[in-house]
Amino acid sequence: MSTKEPFLSIIIPNWNGQKFLKTCLDSIYHQSYKNFEIILVDNGSSDDSIPFLEKNYPEVRTIKLPKNLGFSPAVNIGIREAKGDYIFLLNNDTELADDFLIEMKKAILENPEVGFFASKMLDFKDHTIIDTVGDRMTWSGRSYKLGMLEKDSPKYQTPYLIFGACGGAAVYQKEMLDKIGLLDEDFFAYLEDIDLDFRAQLSGYKCLFVPEAKVFHIGSATSSTISGFAFKLMIKNHWHLIYKNYPWQKIVVNLPKIAYSDLRFFAASVRYHFVRDYLWGLTHAIAEFPKMIKKRQLIQRNRTVSLKYLDSIIDKNFNYKTIGELLHGRK
After folding, report:
1. Rg (CA), the chain
2. What is 8-217's CATH number, 3.90.550.10, 2.60.120.10, 3.20.20.70, 3.30.530.20?
3. How many whole angstroms separate alpha carbon 126 and alpha carbon 150?
4. Distances from the Cα of 318 to the Cαs of 70, 161, 257, in angstroms?
5. 327, 130, 310, 129: which is closest to 228 by C-alpha?
6. Which pTM was predicted?
7. Per-residue pLDDT reduced to its tens digit, 181-200
């Protein structure tokens, strides 16, 4: 067990989220554990986010970007400025439970070998409903949020190792990020946290679910908005995720599942009137393929885990969720 008190750099990406900031920031400052810094990266907001922060939270280190560069680039800018030995990535539309940082600190000190940590994200209005307790991955190329829309129950009260942490409230060892790289900025937004999870696992880093570290999410799985913009980015990033991270043997063996998964994506695009967005995502995935080749080579060269280990943390079955469930709560 480590005895060094971890210093956390809390990175909050923000785009026109002024209405969320008081709830989020007050919940951080109400924590009894104070060994942290807050870095808010504003993605060219057109609302009153910056004046609100300057007036009410001048101690928050605010990085002002001239325009919306996307979720991944904004987060990476914040991480590069961070001083902490752990990075706490947090959505702006969240509220931390009063003992969140204390519980996360305990998990870090008791598990120094763990590379990253997943929190228990609950619905903001109904704290008994789970948004996610972490991310799961399937060999069909789909990821899904573990526990989504379930009632919180005893099976989610015990810490255990999982595939990955939802980027809405995840803690990463800075040393791990220095080794595997930050969020892939070609993803812009959507699935960037799954990609990071996968790269971490391939390099031998484990993820621990911390059930006592609770956060309440406003833009949770119970929301109902689906956008063509989100859909097309998910299609593009879905293919990048597979190509970059799947060992060749797993691509070949699971090709029928991957193809069927994409067929379901196309069917969903027809249902939601997103056919143009589906085609945009597919064509842009192909156009960016040359960049993905170099990334894949580096990732696979640094893989330290066996195919057997990957089979133990990645689902063999389909575990298909509806497109709505996939998109809700992902920012």
Report:
1. 19
2. 3.90.550.10
3. 11
4. 30, 21, 8
5. 327
6. 0.93
7. 999 999 988 999 999 999 99
Distance CA 197, CA 195 (A): 5
- Kind plus residue range of the DSSP H or E element containing 38: strand 36-43
CA 202 to chain centroid: 17
Structure tokens at 79: 């991480």
Contacts of 52 by beta carbon, 8 Å cutoff, 6+ apart: 18, 21
To the nearest 10°, report the CA torsion of 200, 259, 275, 14. Answer: -10
Length of the chain: 331
CA distance 50 to 71: 18
Secondary structure of 218-257 in HEC code, one letter for each residue: CCCCCCCCCCHHHHHHHHHHHHHHHHHHCCHHHHHHCHHH
- Residue 30: Cβ within 10 Å count: 13
Structural contact between residues 156 and 146, judged by C-beta atoms closer than 8 angstroms: no
Residue 320 DSSP SS3: coil
Spatial separation of the C-alpha atoms in residues 204 and 192, rounded to whole Å: 19
| pLDDT at residue 4, as a whole number | 83
What is the C-alpha separation between 146 and 69, in angstroms, rounded? 29
234, 187 Cβ separation under 8 angstroms: no
Q: Per DSSP, what are the bridge partners of residue 37? A: 9
- Residue 45 is encoded by which pair of tokens? 């907001």
Residue 246 scores a pLDDT above 90: yes
Long-range pairs of 285-292 with CB within 8 A, sequence gap ≥ 24: 285/235, 285/236, 285/237, 285/238, 285/239, 285/240, 288/186, 288/236, 288/240, 289/243, 291/186, 292/186, 292/240, 292/243, 292/244
| Tokens at 241, concatenated | 């995720």
pLDDT tens, 259-291?
Answer: 999 999 999 899 889 999 999 999 999 999 999
CA distance 277 to 281: 6
What are the sequence ranges of the domains in the chain?
Answer: 8-217, 228-327
CA distance 109 to 320: 36
